[in-house]
Every structure is written in structure tokens, then in C-alpha cells.
């Protein structure tokens, strides 16, 4: 299995989001943080960092021993069809890993959730299960949700009110981490294949997309991984 990190340099809402300093204690970027986590699970040569700007990612290869691979800039545009972007990045990985394994199973790892720390757990689970072509991390959530027409979902107003403990269990899928075999990648071309296994993740969830997300994630990250405070100690695995 190989780990793939897609990290473009042309983010619009937060310029250079994936590569600018995130952790002021050591200067690590979101990309640094994820690579260090993956190095606890994978060999350096089995980790691929994909970006449209090779000059930016090349130093990561020198620093960590991982493999930087470039992709066309058009595949980092927000208007690019998802399947074209996803499959192009995968093909790059296949070309880089051949002839060792032309269609490898991969762990697709996003940098935008620095709190996520379940890569090893997902790998262990993947090695235990059979008859699945993919696995994806899901976050449980409950709440008094309304749709875009303000209709309650799983509860109702007035006499149809539901106590919070009895609200239906829902799940959020922010695409933080997925595992896919070659069939899922080539035939479906998405984060999830035709026969997925869903892995519940109970740690706090953040998906950095806006400056507010960035500030909130920095706060959570410092609290979660500060060895002195460590109020979210279960994140250490």
C-alpha cells in the first residue's frame, strides 16, 4: 500500500494554505504535519506528495525521503471535473510506482484536518476486513438539522419534537482519509468504491477551508497535541 497526499499550492480562500506555517512552535505546515504522521505508518518511499508546483514539493522529498510527483495545473482548478482530477493524480502514482506495483492499493490522505490521527487504525482495519474495495473515515454527528427549505430532518416542531438523545445518528464524510484498491480507483474513480467499508472516527473533526477554520484548527491542534496541557489525550495513538 502507498500513501498519497494531494496538496495544491493555488488555494484561493487561504493562499498557500497547505504549505505555510501552521504550527508556530516548530514552523510546520499542514503538509509537514501529515507527512510526519504517515512516516509512523509507511516507509518514506511509499509516500507520494502530489502538486502542480514541483518546485514547492521537491524540498519535502529531500527532507523526508518521500516521493514528490507533479500534476498538470488544470487538475488543481476548482472547476476541473472531479473524476478527471482524481484519476490523473492516481495515474501519476501508478507511473511512479511501476514496475513495483502498477495498480497499488492507496491511502488517500488530505492535509486539511491536522487533528485526524487514525491512519494506523485504518490500515489495521483494512488488513482485517475482506470483500471491500475501499474504506472511508466517517464522523458521527447528531443535531436539530434543517434542510434548505427549513424542514426538520429526523424530528419535528411542536409535538413532534425529539429529545436530543433520540435524534437519528448521522455521519459526516469530509474525505479526510480513504483507502482504495485498484478496482475502486480504475472503475469508480472516486474516494469510495462500489463496496466500501465505513470506519467511524470519534476524534474532533475540522476541514480547513476558510480563515476561521484555520484559526479554529490551530487552537484544536495545539490543545490536542500539547504534551503539557493535552486535554484531548485520546488523540495520541
**How many individual β-strands?**
10
Helix content: 25-40%
Low-confidence stretches: 228-237
Tally the structural domains: 1
CATH topology group: Spore Coat Polysaccharide Biosynthesis Protein SpsA, Chain A
Q: Beta fraction of the residues? A: 15-25%
> Can you tell me the CATH architecture?
Alpha-Beta Complex
The biggest sheet amounts to: 8 strands, mixed
Order of helices and strands: EEEHEHEHEHEEEHEH
Give the helices and strands, then pairings.
Layout: E1 2-6, E2 21-23, E3 28-29, H1 30-38, E4 47-51, H2 54-64, E5 67-70, H3 82-97, E6 106-109, H4 119-128, E7 134-141, E8 170-172, E9 177-180, H5 182-188, E10 196-200, H6 211-225
Parallel strand pairs: 1-4, 1-6, 4-5, 7-10
Antiparallel strand pairs: 2-3, 6-9, 7-8, 7-9
Q: What does this 3D model show about the protein?
A:
The protein is α/β, with parallel strands linked by helices and 237 residues long. It has a single domain, classed as Alpha-Beta Complex (Spore Coat Polysaccharide Biosynthesis Protein SpsA, Chain A), CATH 3.90.550. The chain has 6 helices and 10 strands, in the order E-E-E-H-E-H-E-H-E-H-E-E-E-H-E-H. Strands 1, 4, 5, 6, 7, 8, 9 and 10 form an 8-stranded mixed sheet that branches. It is globular and about 65 Å long. The two termini are 20 Å apart.
Amino acid at each position: 500500500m502507498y500513501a498519497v497526499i494531494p496538496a495544491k499550492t493555488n488555494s484561493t480562500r487561504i493562499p498557500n494554505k497547505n504549505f505555510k506555517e501552521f504550527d508556530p512552535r516548530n514552523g510546520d505546515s499542514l503538509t509537514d504535519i501529515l507527512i510526519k504522521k504517515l512516516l509512523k505508518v509507511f516507509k518514506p518511499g511509499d509516500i507520494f506528495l502530489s502538486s502542480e508546483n514541483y518546485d514547492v514539493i521537491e524540498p519535502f522529498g529531500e527532507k523526508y525521503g518521500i516521493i514528490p510527483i507533479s500534476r498538470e495545473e488544470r487538475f488543481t482548478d476548482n472547476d476541473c471535473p472531479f473524476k478527471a482530477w482524481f484519476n490523473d493524480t492516481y495515474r501519476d502514482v501508478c507511473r511512479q510506482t511501476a514496475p513495483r506495483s502498477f495498480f497499488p492499493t492507496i491511502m488517500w490522505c488530505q492535509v486539511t484536518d491536522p487533528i485526524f490521527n487514525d491512519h494506523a487504525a485504518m490500515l489495521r482495519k483494512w488488513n482485517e476486513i475482506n470483500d471491500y474495495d475501499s474504506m472511508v473515515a466517517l464522523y458521527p454527528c447528531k443535531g436539530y438539522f434543517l434542510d434548505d427549505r427549513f424542514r426538520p430532518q429526523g424530528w419535528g416542531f411542536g409535538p413532534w419534537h425529539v429529545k436530543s438523545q433520540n435524534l437519528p445518528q448521522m455521519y459526516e464524510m469530509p474525505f479526510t482519509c480513504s483507502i482504495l484498491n485498484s478496482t475502486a480507483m480504475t472503475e469508480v474513480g472516486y474516494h469510495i468504491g462500489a463496496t466500501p467499508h465505513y470506519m467511524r472516527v470519534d476524534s474532533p473533526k475540522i476541514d480547513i477551508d476558510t480563515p476561521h477554520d484555520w484559526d479554529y484548527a490551530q487552537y484544536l491542534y495545539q490543545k490536542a497535541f500539547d504534551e503539557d496541557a493535552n486535554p484531548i489525550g485520546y488523540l495520541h495513538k
